[in-house]
Amino acid sequence: MSSHIHWVVLSDGARPTEDIYFHESAAATLHQQGVLAERFPVSRSFGAAWLHGRAFKHRFAGVNLLLCRSLPLSWLRWLERNRNAFGYIVYLIDDDIAAAAVDATLPSAYRKRMARIASLQPRLLALADEVVACSDQLASYFTPRHAKVSVLTPPLLAPLPSQEHLSVTASSETPWQIGFHGTRAHLQDLLHIAPALEALQKQRDDTELEIMLGQHIPKRLAALPRVKAPAPLPWQAFQQYQRQRRIHIGLAPLLATPFNQGKSFIKFLDIAAMGGVGIYSNRYPYTEVVRHGENGLLAGDSPDEWHTAMQQLLNHPEATVKMAKQAAMDAQRIGDPAHTITFWQAR
Questions:
Q1: Residue 216's CATH number
Q2: Which of 266, 233, 262, 248 is nearest to 310 (CA)?
């Protein structure tokens, strides 16, 4: 069997990263070309590597391995001892883990988890033949730490919807749907623009605001009129939700922190996938893909700028529809999975 398998993802549970950058974007096409890919979930239980490592080595000897973000310590030690049994190893990373570990604005449990990964990262780098990062900025962090660092920007996985919902809103009483679908890691980014959201919801009655933070939504925002706070969804459930939910305006604030500097432009793709036009912080990575006034809006860190940007989109619906259509075309171009497939074919 091993002679037919080219890649095995040694999975520590980073399913979104694995799916976005490999499994759902490239693996099926690679399989059609005779290159198989498997995901092998590794257990964190005590002695799991010792119990299962021999069978794994027997089954997958000689194949290439893809490591995403982290490995349990026992499996890391096992792989260090058995490195020569495998072929090319890629370490795929989509966050500045070291920066996250010391970022006081992030939830403490998240920082603790990132600190554990950061402590093991030098050993993961030592195992890898190549480091693959999701942005140029993140790649620049690893360049002094590894001899071969490449960039693989995120692909668009979801089908793009029509903009019919935008045209309907522009000519009827249907409320504008404004969405923030970031994780708790972006809570401080959201809080920074909270005054703009408060002003908007109090001044207008034609906007509905969805903040997918569930019980973690800031109280000041939960108290506003026409605010929904659905609970965060597991990865696969969110993918399904994203394919069904339609928004008009997506919000992607990003403060100037070391952790945020390593982010990709994936929110541009996410907002396009839900049929919306985005307002983005006027900094990297969004300045790489957003052309202000053409396929989205860029706003500075002042809440007043975010309020002005939202009002611009709401008060000029025809221009908003035009921007949303351009954003969809650009998302399709820069997020073309063919780029991802070509990247892995080259390896």
A1: 3.40.50.2000
A2: 248
Query: What is residue 172's three-state secondary structure?
Result: coil
Which domain-ending residue is among 101, 118, 152?
Answer: 152
Residues 309 and 184 in one domain: yes
Asked if residues 160 and 332 have their Cβ atoms less than 8 Å apart, the reply is yes
What pTM was estimated for this model as a whole?
A: 0.94
- Counting beta carbons within 10 angstroms of the beta carbon of residue 105, is it exposed (0 to 12), middle (13 to 18) or buried (19 or more)? middle
Residue 206 within a domain: yes
Residue 309 has a CB neighbour count (10 Å cut-off) of: 23
Summarize pLDDT for 7-63 with one digit per residue, the tens: 999 999 999 999 999 999 999 999 999 999 999 999 888 777 888 888 899 999 999
* Measured distance CA(299)–CA(314) in Å, rounded: 15
Domain shared by 327 and 307, yes or no: yes
Statement to judge: residues 106 and 172 lie in one domain: no
Q: Which amino acid is at 127?
A: L
Please give the tally of structural domains in the chain.
2
Burial of residue 181 (number of CB atoms within 10 Å: 0-12, 13-18, 19+): buried
Domain membership of residue 119 as a residue range:
2-152
Integer CA distances (angstroms), 78 to 3, 14, 84, in order = 22, 20, 12
